[in-house]
Amino acid sequence: MRLTIEHHTEYRYDQPVDYALQRLRLWPRNWPCQSVAAWEIELTGGLREARFVDGFGNETWLVSARGGMDHLGITARGVVDTADTNGISGPASGFAPLWLYQQETTLTQPGEAIRALAQEVGGSSVDHLHGLMALVGERVAYEIGATHPATGAEESLSGGSGVCQDHAHVFCAVARLLGLPARYVSGYLFIPDTVDQAASHAWAEAHIEGLGWVGFDCSNGICPDELYVRIAVGRDYADAAPISGIRFGPSQETLAVRLNVSQ
Asked: How does DSSP classify residue 222?
């Protein structure tokens, strides 16, 4: 499937900003499940300071706003050809060793609820992971606004609601307790009959011997197929967020996001 994507993010400041620095993970790479036909990032009100591949293999830009700028616009757009590989994105590769994806993080640190769910799943086979995917979707109802980017897996599972980010964190936390490397994936999802979307998407992957990385989207109860485009990976949201950054000075910002995914 050929998907066309345009993802626009606009920061507006109520007074000229002293300095702001944003880290962009908005450039997809080629995987067995996707091939990037064309891609670009356009900036308004900002400067590209650096471009590099991070330790997780993500194409990363550092972009600054300085010198009295009152806005920063970031538009990522392009065309990606996707394929259904039954959720398999390929063997482990890159700089990050598999053991790194077995470590707890602040957002995936297990508590009583996570440990109880791991005991309920009871194993680490593909069938067990499909069961885990279903359980996470059942136990954490999809509710926009119920959580925020700093909400951890234990809190969202105990609270019983969250969004795709929380689903991915819970899945990763449980999979790691089961002895599997697990990682967070950020990207886009084509929703038929829905061109304009409010936000990008996220799901989880577990590394399974003999298969490699296999994706599980707890929010939709499926393994990613040709409707999905991968952008970045990491141990959790903090490692793979499409945009993250810092701001200095007294100015306050407002954020507007426009996302269009079409076939």
From this structure: B
Selection from 80, 65, 59, 55 nearest residue 4 by Cα: 80
Distance set, CA 248 to CA 150, 229, 253, 258 (Å): 20, 33, 11, 25
Say yes or no: 122 and 181 in one domain: yes
Q: Which amino acid is at 47?
A: L
Q: Which helix or strand (DSSP H or E) is residue 136 part of?
A: helix 126-139
Number of folded domains in the chain?
2
Q: How far apart are CA 219 and CA 134, in angstroms?
A: 9
Domain that holds residue 141: 88-240
- Is residue 231 classed exposed, middle or buried when 0-12, 13-18 and 19+ CB atoms within 10 A define those classes? buried
Sheet holding 196-197, edge to edge: 34-44, 71-82, 2-13, 253-262, 196-197
Mean pLDDT of the chain: 95
pLDDT at 67 over 80: no
Burial call 138-168: b when 16+ CB within 10 Å, e when fewer: ebbeeeeebbeeebbbbbbbebebbbbbbbb
Residues 203 and 103 in one domain: yes
Residues in the chain: 263
Give the H or E element holding residue 49.
Answer: strand 47-53
DSSP β-ladder status, 161-162 and 141-142:
parallel
CATH of the domain at 57: 2.60.40.2250
Name the residue with tokens 């697990």: 182
pTM score, two decimals? 0.96
Q: What's the CATH number where 145 sits?
A: 3.10.620.30
Residues 33 and 88 sit within 8 Å (Cβ to Cβ)? yes
The predicted-structure confidence for 27-42, as pLDDT tens digits, reads as follows 999 999 999 999 999 9
